[in-house]
C-alpha cells in the first residue's frame, strides 16, 4: 500500500512560493508610470497612418509582380476560325462561250446546259475554287442572221459579231496557234480588267475537233460539229472552264496546291547551284547573269502577286553524289534509277544553304545542275518503266530540283594539268534552264508539259514566255490566298487557345499588334475574294499569318 504521509507536509512550501511570485509581479507595476486612462486619438492616428500607407503601396506592389498581357481580340479570332472552318474561301468566276457558225441554237438553253455540266464537275469544290453559287455563264451565238445572247452576257466584254471573218489565216489547222491567241486577245481585251472573264470560242468549221487554251484567259475549239454531238461539245466547254481555267489542269499525282513553296513572309529565294563532282577531271562555269536577265526577270515579275522572289547562284567543287550508279552495256552509260533519288543529294558535301538574304521565314528552293565525274559519265536517269528520262532531271517537293548534265563526249582533260576551265554554251544553258522552269512549275503544282488530257479529249496548252500564263497565275493566286487564310486562322486559333490556357504567360504589345494586323489582313483577303480580286487576295503584303 502506497505511503501518502509525505504529501501534506510539502503543501505549505508550495503555497508560500506562489504567494511570493504574486507579490513580485505586483511590485513590477509602478503606479507612477501606469496609464490611468484609455488610449486616445494619437494611437488611433498612428494605426490608421500605417494601414493607409499599406493600402496606398499595395497597387504598386501588385504592379511590380504582375504578368504583362497585351489584350488580344479573342472573340474576333474565334469568329475568323469559325468562318474559315465552316465555309471555304470561294471566288466569283465569270465565264462566257461564243458559238460561231451555228444555226438554230438557243443561247439561253446552251447557257443552262453548260452551267449544269459545270455543276456536275464542281460537286465537291475545294478551297480557292469557284462554286456553283458564285459564278456566271454567258453565251453568245453568232450565226448568219446575227448574234443572240443570254441574259448573263457581260456588257463590258461582248463578242464583236463577224470578228472571226477578219482572221487571215487558217483558224483550225494549228499552224499558227500563237497568232490566233493574239488575235483573240485583241478581240477579248476588254475582258482583262478587274473583273476577270474566262472565254471559250467554239467555231463550227473544218474537220476533226481540236481544242487549244491560250496564254491569256481564253481558249478555242474548232471543228465540224453536227447536231447530235452538241452534248459532247457542251461537256467539253464545261470541262475546259472547270478543269483547266479553275483547277489549273492539275493531275491527281501533281503537288497539291496547299503546299505551295512560299515562305510565311511571302518570299521565295531561287538558289541555282552548279556542281562539279570532281574538278580534277573538268571544271565548268556558266554565264548565269545572262540567263537571269533573259529568262528569270519576266518570271519574277509575273509571280509578283504570289510571292516576292529573289535569285542567287553559286559554283561548287568536289561535290560527289551519295547514290551509286552502275554501268549498262546496252545504253553505254552509267545508270541511276528512281529508287536512288532519295540518296542522290549529298547533304554532307553539297553546301547549298549559303544565302544570307534568307530570313527565318523565307523559303529557299534549290536548283542543282550536277556535272558527273569522268568515272561515271555519261550518267542517265532510268524511269520506273525502263525508259531513259528525256530531261535527265527530277524534283523534290518543297526542296527543289536536280538536273544532270553530261559534258560533251565525256572526255577527260588528261593532257592539261590542272584541267582547263570550260563555260557551258548558251544553247546548252538555255535547255538546262528550260528544265528548271518546268521543275519550278511542278513545285507550284502546275503541269510541266503542254497537254491536258481530260474525259472529253486532249487540249493543247500554249506556253508563255513568262513561264506562267495569265489563267495559271489566277489559279496560283486563288489557291495561295486560300492557303494563307487557312494558315492565318489556324495559327491565330492555336495562339488564342494557348494564351487562354496559360494565364501567367507574358504577351508583349508587339504580339498584340501583329495579331490585330493579321486579323485585318484576313478580313481584307475575304473581302477581296468576294469581289474576285485575285491578285490583292494573295498579295505578299497580306501574308501575315502570325
Output the keywords.
five-stranded mixed sheet, disordered N terminus, about 550 residues, 11 helices, about 35% helix, alpha/beta, flat, disordered C terminus, eight-stranded mixed sheet
- What is the CA-CA span between the terminal residues? 94 Å
Structural class: alpha/beta
Overall geometric form: flat
- In terms of DSSP E residues, the strand content is 15-25%
Characterize the main sheet: 8 strands, mixed
- The SSE string, one letter per element, is HHHEHEEHEEEHEEHEEEEEEEEHEEHHH
Q: Using DSSP, what is the number of strands?
A: 18
Biggest sheet strand line-up: 3-2-1-4-6-5-18-17
Short summary:
The protein has 546 residues and is α/β, with parallel strands linked by helices. It contains 11 helices and 18 strands.
